[in-house]
């Protein structure tokens, strides 16, 4: 231990130094006055100071505060050496920064005991300071990492402002990073898509999954996928990323251009509420799927529901952090509480609903992320023209012969080729249906010469498809040819399909009753296309599909 002895009497310094050396403290230094003490303390960095009170120039009372201040946050014990014995003087020793005092003449045993005691405190202070330095470094590193992550989030998770304008959204994280996510994008069909999600827990560990979800959502929507297909793709990627105890409760919704028809996939989320502001009536649509990131691909259900609404009605979507707020008595608001708050005003706002939840919680802390999305039904026509089509014509030709027709991914592969063209995403779903029906009719009734009337009952269905597989497996000749042209001046696709079969009676296929179990394909094609023309006895067909939805 390094000790600095401060006294203007050389005899006192000698006696103190001798006593300390006898106790084993050999690393001792002397200062003859206050200023000398300040200078030597700065140079030597002592572990303890023995300080006389009465000295010429700067007294001990004046020196002690400066010594403490110059030492910073580290504990520097100062023991006053004094001949004063009045209580006021002794109290002042402690008030100016002293930590203890001993009276002259010195008691060696007591002085040594006090030095040892304050030495232990000094050592503890040094350890604390070292730990604080490590913590400060760690905190700076964490703050730096958080700043980097926050910058990545801010640049990676960006919604189209023209779409976001139609939604009233409030998101209140329980920690620095939000485990809830709201994404929105223009629908290729002319409306809008949005996703409201809630990862397990909150904070950075929960928020990190937002990045891949945002990427998949935007790419899938851009290519005209349905809400079920978007949900399937996100589920697949989260299965490979998230630990077993983590998942994403989510609602994925497509709003059509009228703003009044919603295609909804909901997994693990609170019920969706639809309110009529005129009557105050509220309809509830509970989630019917499990959250994303739980089920394997083969078990996953991509089925969606449809909600029909009217202009001016309000749709409310929220995460469970809203309904799980508790009052002072531990009562949870629950879904009924949210429904009550929603009904209290004809036209609700996200901010108003959030404030009701905060008022219900009172002085309690926010336990989970809280997010609200409100959509007031109105036309989304302003978003309709954001997806442009090609300015130049193009033609895609596909010739399939013999065993090539056994490939089960023919239409999927054709759609992959077409999807690379600008604007195809607008009609992707209808185009897939039309191509599938055209191909199946050409293959089954043309090349394989199967008769639809076989499917008159369930047993006939089984017989029909059994015979289909047999004939397809034996197929060596036969062919089907697709020629697909884009006509930019008409903003339409023209699809020509020919096959090597003898054709079939397209009129009788359409005349089957509406309750029949077969024969509806051509009617569906006519419904989805602007023009349908069969020729060559049914072995050739030309259809035209408008790209304007």
Can you summarize this structure?
By secondary structure, the protein is an alpha+beta fold. The chain has helices at residues 10-22, 34-44, 60-71, 87-95, 108-156, 161-164, 204-207, 210-222, 227-241, 320-323, 334-343, 350-361, 410-418, 428-447, 458-474, 506-510, 521-528; strands at residues 3-6, 28-31, 48-52, 78-82, 100-103, 167-172, 180-186, 192-199, 248-255, 261-267, 272-275, 282-285, 305-308, 314-318, 370-376, 394-401, 479-487, 492-499, 531-535, 540-546. The chain folds into three domains: 3-128, 3-Layer(aba) Sandwich (Rossmann fold); 157-384, PPM-type phosphatase domain (Phosphatase 2c, domain 1), CATH 3.60.40; 388-546, Histidine kinase-like ATPase, C-terminal domain (Heat Shock Protein 90).
Report on this structure.
This protein is α+β, with helices and mostly antiparallel strands. It folds into 3 domains: 3-128, Rossmann fold, CATH 3.40.50.2300; 157-384, 4-Layer Sandwich (Phosphatase 2c, domain 1); 388-546, Histidine kinase-like ATPase, C-terminal domain (Heat Shock Protein 90), CATH 3.30.565.10. It has 17 helices and 20 strands. The chain has helices at residues 10-22, 34-44, 60-71, 87-95, 108-156, 161-164, 204-207, 210-222, 227-241, 320-323, 334-343, 350-361, 410-418, 428-447, 458-474, 506-510, 521-528, and strands at 3-6, 28-31, 48-52, 78-82, 100-103, 167-172, 180-186, 192-199, 248-255, 261-267, 272-275, 282-285, 305-308, 314-318, 370-376, 394-401, 479-487, 492-499, 531-535, 540-546. Strands 2-1-3-4-5 form a 5-stranded parallel β-sheet, sandwiched between helices. It has a 5-stranded antiparallel β-sheet with strand order 6-15-14-11-12. Strands 7-8-9-10-13 form a 5-stranded antiparallel β-sheet, with helices on one face. A hairpin with a 5-residue loop joins strand 9 (248-255) and strand 10 (261-267). Helix 14 packs antiparallel against helix 17 (521-528). The longest helix is centred in the first third of the chain and has 49 residues, at 108-156. The radius of gyration is 40 Å and the shape is elongated.
